[in-house]
Design brief:
Number of helices: 25
Number of strands: 26
Pathway: Amino-acid biosynthesis; L-proline biosynthesis; L-glutamate 5-semialdehyde from L-glutamate: step 2/2; Amino-acid biosynthesis; L-proline biosynthesis; L-glutamate 5-semialdehyde from L-glutamate: step 1/2
InterPro entries: AceGlu_kinase-like_sf, Ald_DH/histidinol_DH, Ald_DH_C, Ald_DH_N, Aldehyde_DH_dom, Asp/Glu/Uridylate_kinase, G-glutamylP_reductase_CS, G5K_ProBA
Pfam families: AA_kinase, Aldedh
Low-confidence stretches: 1-17, 119-123, 199-214
EC number: 1.2.1.41, 2.7.2.11
Keywords: Amino-acid biosynthesis, ATP-binding, Kinase, Mitochondrion, Multifunctional enzyme, NADP, Nucleotide-binding, Oxidoreductase, Proline biosynthesis, Transferase
Shape: globular
Mean pLDDT: 85
Distance between the termini: 80 Å
Strand content: 15-25%
Length: 767
Amino acid sequence: RCWSNIPFITMPLSRAHGKSFAHRSELKHAKRIVVKLGSAVVTRGDECGLALGRLASIVEQVSMLQNQGREMMIVTSGAVAFGKQRLRHEILLSQSVRQALHSGQSQLKDMAIPVLEAFLWVFPVWGAGACAAAGQSGLMALYEAMFTQYSICAAQILVTNLDFHDEQKRRNLNGTLHELLRMNIVPIINTNDAVVPPPEPNSDLQGVNVISVKDNDSLAARLAVEMKTDLLIVLSDVEGLFDSPPGSDDAKLIDIFYPGDQQSVTFGTKSRVGMGGMEAKVKAALWALQGGTSVVIANGTHPKISGHVITDIVEGKKVGTFFSEVKPAGPTVEQQGEMARAGGRTLAALQPEQRAEIIYRLADLLTDQREEILLANKKDLEEAENKGRLALPLLKRLSLSTSKLNSLAIGLRQIAASSQDSVGRVIRRTRIAKDLDLEQVTVPIGVLLVIFESRPDCLPQVSALAIASGNGLLLKGGKEAAHSNQILHHLTQEALSIHGVKDAVQLVNTREEVEDLCRLDKLIDLIIPRGSSQLVRNIQKAAKGIPVMGHSEGICHVYVDTDASVEKVTRIIRDSKCEYPAACNALETLLIHRDLLRTPLFDQIIDMLRVEQVKIHAGPKFASYLTFSPSEVKSLRTEYGDLECCIEVVDSVQEAIEHIHKYGSSHTDVIITENEKTAEFFLQHVDSACVFWNASTRFADGYRFGLGAEVGISTSRIHARGPVGIEGLLTTKWLLRGDNHVVSDFSEHGSMKYLHESLPLPQRNTN
């Protein structure tokens, strides 16, 4: 019988019912793993020979996992393809010298192919067996050579159907595999295609019967269950399981597949090579899942991911289709993204007064439900303190208070008041020609993904800005603020419900990794990270085709000029560093003009920092002026986020600017001086998002700028820069209104001429 005929409902007697992993994140605990390599993964596109580079990459990943202490097994195809290659070569070499001289060397190579194909056509059973027999030894020799590079031994096992139906053979196979695993040897398992009956001839390549490499899906599932493996990875030439045939217009990759979901899937044709198609893989996967083995079907041929697809799966990353028996209580993140998209479009279609009404309602709820919010926040603080996993600055960010909630409510009301004409505002009008008018109007960006950590107050701020700008919103908060985020999101949806747009703002509560969220380029239009510099860098690295708005670091400078006011210096420095040292707009490096060293002003600065218990790190030049200096700074590009700062000496305002450009992060930089000319020079030449004169760095904030709130501070040079409010969450579209206009009318001999006249803009609502 063919392997596809193995029954999928009868469980092997020797395998007790186990429990598969419920979530991808648990796959990292998999100890025993079977990797099934499909025909299309192992073979070249011409089905004659092996894809050596791809195979080497797979061996490297398997070796890495084996050396981590896992027990790896491989179910491989490839013997028939490798055998084809060898037999063609042998036929070529066996041509007579007379034929070679008569036909010419160039024609001789082409003669071997039809000779072999004719043999396979006439004798399909023997032909497949011959190819398999010729290819098995070479295939195994190749595996051995590759695994030897990683000091790993591999062993070949060939099986047939009878090995599973004969109890004694089955026990022998089981014992052999266990012994190999015990000795840290990787078993390489394949069907014995030299003796097993082949399937019916295929006709999947232009109607020509092709001897294809056998599919080992059911063999891999059977072995996985027999050996009580934790994970079966099935590598094919598609990304995973789609709800309709891949390549069709509406096909969507299924992230998680549950038993019983077969009715929602339309299967296409079988693989170009191999015996089975996706339907056979799903049957095998469900059978293995029933036996307690977790399964992932993924693409092993894509050049961008094949080099790490196996290790990514084991690390729990969102790759391919994961089979699970546990359905989540709520929607998947993909469904949430679609809900946010649809809800955002409905939100954008509301009248400005209706969007403002939602925000006013949310502001009221923040004060009306104050006790419930603070109680939830107290739970988060207690859990964080008990687990000891948060540093003091992060605990401060996590904490909510009555005053914080009152400030939030005030900020939200500012957003509501200023959002009346944000969406649909005409910013340019041009008369292209007679009766042909063009308008550029503001529209929402689409769906925003905002990722924030230890900042529950961020949730209502960002929600209000998304509502005001008509954007759908996905929120991913840190688990340390789970209770606070939950109630704040509930209140947000309560406010949205007054106009039936509850789904526009979604809180991601699944075990979705941030890196996986950053790959949802078809659902998300803009990612906005709010958190540590490390979080922002990780997101910028992980984002695949989605723009990221934000700043990786907040290295803010204050430069004290020779003409600085004594009264202003200590006040501005104290506020910039000590008012909230964990903020991204807090002072990190203090630049002092050389002429101020050993002056009363310098002593006052140092005394104030000591009183405020600020730890001082000396820059290289500052340290050279001192006999006994504070600890020298390890890097001038350090964001401390605490009561610490670096002091460095500069010779001029020009040198201060050069230092800022070299070591800063283009966030916020300040000059303290009474010299207006020096100040203007600093303001014009410092290339940062925010540049201030005689004002604290802490003013770099959307609320303090009068924006009501901000989704973050952007240091990028495209689109929004600095504190990002409603305007930064809008883009534009062009509206052209004509009357039977065609471009040919404007040609050299046409009847119409371009006017390109600027038209007045409609008056804005300034209430």
